[in-house]
Amino acid sequence: MTNEADEVGMAARRDFVLGGARSGKTGVALARAERSGLRPVMVATATADDAEMAARVAAHRAERGPEWGLVEEPLAVAAVLAREARDDRVLVIDCLTLWLSNVMFAERDAEAEIDRLTAAFALAAGPVIAVSNEVGLGIVPENALSRRFRDLQGRLNRRIADVADRVTLVVAGLEMVIKGG
To answer: Is there a catalytic annotation at residue 60?
Structure first.
C-alpha cells in the first residue's frame, strides 16, 4: 500500500537508506530529497583529513546542485537534527557510518551517542533521510576495534531502523524497501 506522499516523491518523515560501500545509497537519498519539493540540506559527517578524503568530499559536493544547503558536523548530529529539522526542508545525513567512526575515534561513549542520535531522529521536527553502511554481512573482523565497530554499527542501524517510517536496502544500485512504503 502506497501513501499519497510516496506517490508524489515526498520523503518519509523518518527515512533510512542503507547498503554496502558504493552501492548507490547516497544517490537514492539525494534523489528522494530532491523529489520531496522541500529545500534539501546535507548534514555531512565526513572530515577531510587527507587528500583522498578531500577528493571524495569534493566529489560529493559536486553531485549536489546550488539549491542544497550544507551543515558539516562530524560529531554533534543529534544537536543538528534538533536545531535544523523543520517542515520546510529535508535533511540528509550522510553518513551514520562515518559519524560512528568519528564518535569512536573521539573516545566518546558510543552507546550514549547512539541513544542521543536515535532519539533526535525519532523526534525530528521535519523530514530526515539517514544514510548508513550495512557492515554486518561479511566475515568477523580479526581485531577487537573492528569487531567493536561492526557490533556498534549493527546496533545503530537496528535502532535507527526501529524508529524509521521507511527503511530501504540498496544493493548494486537497486532499492529494496524493507519497511514502510
So the answer is: yes
Domain 4-179 adopts which CATH fold?
Answer: Rossmann fold (3.40.50)
* Type of residue found at 3: N
Question: Between vectors from CA 122 to CA 121 and to CA 125, what angle results, nearest 5°?
Answer: 80
Q: Alpha-carbon torsion 90, 180, 23, 97, what sign? A: positive
Written as nine digits, the cell of 147 is: 569487531
Domain ranges of the chain: 4-179
pLDDT-based confidence at residue 137 (cuts at 50, 70, 90) = confident
Query: What does the alpha-carbon distance between residue 89 and residue 170 come to, in Å, rounded to a whole number?
Result: 24
Predicted TM-score (pTM) of the model is 0.90
24, 27, 48, 60: the active-site residue: 60
